[in-house]
Amino acid sequence: MKERFLNENKMLFRFTDQVLVECPECNSVAKIVIPEKIDNSEEYGDRWNSLKRRLVCTNCGYMKETKAKRGPFSDWKYEYQEANISEEAIDWFFGLPLYLQAPFKGNTFWAFNYEHLNYLERYIRAELRDPAPYYLSVESTLPKWIKLSKNREDLLKIINKMKLK
Description:
6 helices; four-stranded antiparallel sheet; two-stranded parallel ribbon; alpha+beta
């Protein structure tokens, strides 16, 4: 029986509660976290966008904080949020290289964290996928080379290597 992926219609920012990056001081894995409690009743809008983010390296102790700033249209933006992360593989908050990334046929395969990586793995592994995902969902914004069945096995090998990091 063919494996099926049911769209959860998760937007990419849902995977940013914890982002794994390379520490700018020691190049070890560091985490970008939300240093304050999240009230689940206010998950969307200004509440998410105005949150502080803290970069913490447990290897060398490096720490830095940032917060979103109001844009010209009263929207909240982090400094690197406009970066094309499909090409650069950097985080939105500090512009650091993502820890979970690997080259793939002239592209970069990346994930924010292991939850995101597992989500991508389920999508890639599935031979059957829901045809109409929400237009802002992770599934709808994936590049074509990730969606192609001819790349499935090679991408799954990369994912397995990433899980061992």
